[in-house]
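Sync notes, pocket subgroup
Present: LS, DG
LS reminded everyone that the earlier model was apo-only. Rerun requested with orotidine-5'-monophosphate included. Inputs:
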Amino acid sequence: MNPIYLALDLPRLDAAVALAQKVKGHVGGLKLGLEFFCAHGHHGVHEVAKVGLPIFLDLKLHDIPNTVAGAMQSIHVLEPAIVTIHAAGGRAMMEDAKAAAGENCKVVAVTVLTSLDGSDLSATGIGSSAHDQVLRLTDLAAEAGLDGIVCSGHEVAQVHKRWKNGYFVVPGLRPAEASPNGIGGGDQKRTMTPRAARDAGASVLVIGRPISRAEDPVAAARAIEGTL
Ligand SMILES: O=C(O)c1cc(=O)[nH]c(=O)n1[C@@H]1O[C@H](COP(=O)(O)O)[C@@H](O)[C@H]1O
């Protein structure tokens, strides 16, 4: 199975559907995040689902347990294959989110965003390195009964050792020929190539701008697929 999920971080619904149609032979699924969902909601998800690939609903839910469980129930009808919540919401929030999710929906917890490094964490009062914080939140997510976590390629090998049957989503990926933060991706700090992340144990490779902002998105997707 192709592990690439294309992040459709585009403001226009027609452009998102057109891009998904173009590259669908070279990716395994489609990720719809906050930009898309805030603009197009359930209707937009239904339209993209017509492309025929599994949908990853990246809503990064983070609130009190009752509110997050309610949100999970409200998205049942969209039948997502994967949904994200924030591990920092705590164990009870994660347990309630998982309990409210549909049977066929994997619930994965974002640990430390790939746009953050140790100094960013320190500015929020977290004294540990990004690596240690990912491991701590991974253990919490596993205890809460989630399916897996989101982390950068730099932590996934370690995470894999601690959680053998976990499901590991890895964003912040840049093909070798791109500069680490190229293609408008200067917000990513903990980056890796798709191949290295897969070799380290990633279950899902989330890739957005290296495909969506490429001059030829089909060629870019095909090239990345060819490296795996
Ligand atoms: O949950 C995510 O998917 C996510 C977590 C994270 O730590 N970092 C991260 O970049 N993402 C998402 O992964 C995608 C990365 O996009 P590109 O940087 O354009 O490849 C975006 O849709 C982000 O919202």
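DG: The chain is about 45% helix and 15% strand.
LS: The beta strands are 4-7, 29-32, 55-61, 82-86, 106-110, 148-150, 167-170, 204-207.
Action: DG to write up.
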